[in-house]
Amino acid sequence: xxxxxxxxxxCCEALLKVDxxxxxxxxxxxxxxxxxxxxxxxxxxxxxxxxxxxxxxxxVQHTKRSSEILEKKFEEARKRAEADPTAKPPHPFDNE
Length: 96
What we know:
By secondary structure, the chain is α+β, with helices and mostly antiparallel strands. The protein is built from one helix and three strands; from the N terminus they run E-E-E-H. It has one helix spanning 38-83, and strands at 5-8, 15-19, 24-29.
């Protein structure tokens, strides 16, 4: 069995071990990123905090809106039940 060939990726500079018989990559050693300075890391954390705040605000709006929709559905079901009190309520699995 021939030995795996070591190839360096021109894009990410990772070391690839390629099996010559199957022409498939059998191992990847990714190049480690250089250490970053503290100011860069702090700015990245602050920018991600802003994104998280935006996502949280959207989630709150979605939850508020879904509770309003559920309230409207409940009111409609209550009106129908009051209109015909002898009717059976719909079975949840009938729509499947």
